[in-house]
Sequence to fold (623 residues):
Amino acid sequence: MDVILRTRNLTKRYKEHTAVRDVSMTLRRGDIYGFLGQNGAGKTTTLRMMLGLVQPTSGEIELFGNKVTAARQIPFERIGSIIEIPGFYPNISAVDNLDIHRRLMGMGNRDSIEESLDAVGLLAARNHPVKQFSLGMKQRLGLARALLHRPELLILDEPTTGLDPQGIRETRQLILDLALKRKITILLSSHILSEIEQMATQVGIIHRGRMLEEVPYEVLQEKNKQYLEIHVDNDRKAAMVLEQHLRIAAYQIIQLGVIRIYERIEEAAVINQQFVRFGLAVRELSLKRDSLEEYFMRLTGGRGDA
Amino acid sequence: MLNLIQNENMKIYRRPRTWLLVAIMLIILVVHAFATYSMVSKNETVNPNWKQELIEKNKDIQNDMKKNAALPKPILDQMEISIKKNEYYIENDIAPGKMTQWSYLGAATEVMLLVTIFAAVIAGDIVASEFSGGTIKLLLIRPMSRTKILMSKYFSTLLFGGFLTVILAIASYVIGGALFGFGGADQPYIYVSPDDNTVHTMTQLKNVGISLGLQLIGLLMIVTMSFMISAALRSSTMAISFSLVAMFIGSNLVSFLAKFSWVKYILFANMDLRRYIEGPILVEGMTMNFSIAMLAVYFLAFHFFAWLLFTKRDVAA
Fold:
């Protein structure tokens, strides 16, 4: 699969602090990449560097296979983006705001304006000045603008900020549609994991400027699958029983007397029966599951919605 | 580039504020015209003995000059120029203050100061507002270079200045004609040349042309300064207030500092090129060519700083 975007050891240092430190990430064609991190973790700065708005202190950015060292080398006509809350000219209508963008992109025909307004459901409001738009409408108009020139890569910074649950659902559906129908590669940042759940194919977690983890979404899910947690009086003996009599290898003694079992979890009764047969005192047996949110919080050592 | 200028124009002329500025300019022009008209008509009716009055006036000025000999030289020079002009009126039997359409137009070029202020307001806003409105990112994540974007904004500002100037010219021509009767372009305009310290005349038409040209040079400098501050400091408040202070305090300030020869390197000491036609010269030895060279240096410096700070800095807005 071809690499659409790659960074190597991307770093941005300011006088007092380092906002982004050695961030390396890879987006392949068709990825929906969830870029996760708390507020202030360095997400926006990283995205700004990719778009040439902020000059990296060190490190490399590669877009569509070409190294980018200056803003003018960035193939902007292949990239659509929304960085933070999209800005518009308030006295100018939705159509004309997009028309300004069309001229900036050097595009000839105006058909795509109506098309992209239609795609985000704003066709009816197209002649209203943007100052009359709600925040949700502005987010959608921002998306329409980002899509106007039919980009191959879409960079969206917190696209659901300030939206109500209905708006969040709609935006998510819209993004999924774009990825599936138009085969656009999408880089999506968020500070709330649940926003990218059921959407992302690839996840990168950034914390205090560092990339903690970059894995396919399934791997992340794998780490968080269900398990049986059993409290017994003798964990060594219990381990022996698991391996030799139940043929279970996927288990972990996480602390003294506490075992987590990751396979045959539906056979809790059988496991319990065997333990009792070998004279183990089972104090507690429960089926548990870490939510991704908990995992994310554990990883970043704080509240996920900070 | 044309596309970019079209975008900028759309942003300027779709704002109600822009049209408010146009309206304010027209209102002030009308007020100025009627004020001029009422002053002139009073002079004509009340004062048949204008010669006697001018002689008195000259005596007063001479006394003032004796009493206030410590005033800065350019101010004393200005008084001397008034005396010379009055003497010329008496000798040649020309009643001063008799207005025609064209002598009114000469006075109306002062309303160009307002055009300069309003163009400076637009200039001060045109870059800074993109930062405060969060739209700057949209301009910069496009295939157009930052240099081109900056240039399109500058040209759009100048176009706005030109637009106001044209409106002012047409409006004052009509108002002047209505109040004072059309004509008078070939009437003499009286001034004292600093080259030989004697009274000269030129046609009113030529005077209006020169005045307008000089005002446009002033406009260009102030607008460029405001634009530079807007692009460099990204604050429209700073850009607009700096320009206003510069316009109103700058020229007085340099008059009072005229005894120091380094004053001639200050922008405001060079802004008023009319000094080389009608005096008074601010600092001994300053010439029109010197001032034009200084203006060119400032002009290029403003552009250089605007460009440097706009194209090189990170955008965190």
Remarks:
- Chain B has one domain: 2-45+99-312.
